[in-house]
Specification:
This protein has 326 residues and is mainly α. It contains 16 helices and two strands. The longest helix is centred in the middle third of the chain and has 26 residues.
């Protein structure tokens, strides 16, 4: 494994990325003082713009000059991502986001939901500026897909069987769909052939799957960054790929643990037992193996027409997704 930094993947798009970093915060501001106070708290805890980076890398690998519409797409996907996180934190009753108090913890659920709605609406306004009806349609349908993923996940709390197929269906909707759309629409706006558009869409989808798998692996380690102890997903009734594999591969009867975790009545001892069993009985190893298989498949999907420089950059991008430390 090579060690890549964010700088290594933004080098080919340094001008575009620098411009995006400067202009994006203006989209999280308001002339209304009360709203601006809420929005200003989000700019201090922004992520690494991993989705906009995919948008710009895709476009630049296809055309020397990134179209103006692609900038609007990058802003739209990041706004949609940030808006959806606010809703997720309310649903999950999370109190921290990237090591800082979450919006719902700071301002309450009502304001957090309304703030999420406001940001999602700005995403739609931004994508309209792309002047692409397909982009508007795709973003609108994606919002539906994200909501569907949340509903399906909540509905699984009543299941007593752990399904790897269902897990991938959920993360395909909740996480991979936005990565896939980012790459697909960027390629489309950059004049790619339909075959290349489809290839980038599949590439983005696999990136998103691995992004979520890595997030799920984090849950088996105490986090000094977020302050969350290991097993937080299980406390919320969520079984992810490592625990699904470990339990389904076990000869032991875990039905009591599954039912208690799903019904949110599990004891700390039960949570720790499942966490430890997953950790020491192949769950993490299996998930990491899956990510490696996905990475090889994703790299084979990249269009043959892109340069070796960008092929290496996409490999570095994938490496950051798979091996990031939080």
């Amino acid at each position: 494994m090579e060690n890549y930094s964010t700088d290594s993947i933004t080098c080919p798009i340094s001008v575009e990325y620098e411009q995006f970093e400067k202009t994006f915060p203006t989209l999280l501001s308001s002339t209304n003082r009360a709203v601006d106070v809420l929005l200003s708290g989000l700019t201090t805890t922004k992520g690494k713009f991993i989705r906009p980076i995919l948008v710009f890398l895709t476009s630049k690998s296809l055309t020397p000059k990134i179209p103006r519409s692609v900038y609007h797409l990058a802003s739209a996907v990041e706004l949609l991502h940030q808006g959806s996180l606010l809703h997720d934190d309310v649903i999950d009753e999370s109190e921290r986001r990237r090591g800082e108090p979450s919006a719902n913890k700071l301002f309450g659920n009502k304001k957090a939901i309304l703030l999420g709605d406001l940001i999602v609406s700005r995403s739609l306004l931004e994508i309209v500026l792309s002047q692409s009806l397909d982009c508007v349609n795709s973003i609108s349908r994606l919002i539906e897909t994200l909501a569907e993923g949340e509903i399906v996940q909540l509905d699984t709390l009543n299941d007593d069987v752990l399904s790897e197929e269902l897990y991938f269906d959920i993360i395909s909707k909740k996480t991979a769909s936005l990565f896939s759309l980012s790459a697909r629409l960027s390629a489309e706006l950059s004049g790619a052939s339909q075959a290349d558009v489809d290839s980038f869409a599949q590439f983005g989808h696999i990136v998103g799957l691995c992004f979520q798998i890595r997030d799920d692996i984090f849950d088996y380690y105490d986090s000094p960054v977020t302050g969350k102890p290991a097993g937080n997903d299980l406390k919320e009734g969520k079984f992810t790929l490592p625990s699904i594999y470990a339990i389904n591969s076990s000869s032991r009867d875990w039905s009591r643990h599954i039912n208690d975790i799903r019904s949110l009545t599990a004891t700390p001892e039960q949570i720790k037992e499942v966490t430890d069993y997953t950790f020491f009985n192949g769950g993490i190893t299996y998930a990491e193996k899956k990510m490696k298989e996905f990475e090889n498949k994703a790299m084979s999907l990249l269009p043959a027409s892109i340069s070796d420089e960008f092929r290496d950059t996409f490999r570095a991008y994938f490496d950051i997704i798979v091996n990031r430390q939080r």
